[in-house]
Amino acid sequence: MKAETIAFRMFLNPGQQAEYQRRHDAIWPELRTLLYDAGISDYRIYLDPEHNVLFATLRRTANHGMDRLPQHPVMQKWWAYMGDIMRCNADGSPVVEPLPCLFQLD
Question: Other CB atoms closer than 10 Å to residue 20's CB: what's the count?
């Protein structure tokens, strides 16, 4: 299996666009490294400001380690840092809804 692109959405609390942008503009180097080491690249997050919905895409390698990220202390620390501005699950992770690909033009 080759690398794949996945898409998902998350939910920003109203009025938090500027803060979300500020925090991501200063993303922690250790988080960036963790994501790269997990096989993630070309990670993009877009905002639908009318609905406070974040739309994200990323590429991941066939042997990615995304499934191990929730247990990593850096990821847990990031979730805690972001928890006040996003809709989150009971464990602190952001609410993420996968989006199926219905069309692709290569």
Answer: 19
Q: List Cβ<8 Å contacts ≥24 apart for 74-80.
A: 74/28, 74/30, 74/31, 74/34, 75/31, 75/34, 78/28, 78/31
Is the whole model's pTM more than 0.90, yes or no? yes
Is-catalytic flag, 51?
Answer: no
Select which of 24, 51, 64, 72 is catalytic. 24
Q: Which of 82, 100, 102 is nearest to 92 (CA)?
A: 82
Q: What are phi and psi of 68, to 5 degrees?
A: -90, -10
| Token couple for 66 | 């995304």
**pLDDT at residue 77 is higher than 80:** yes
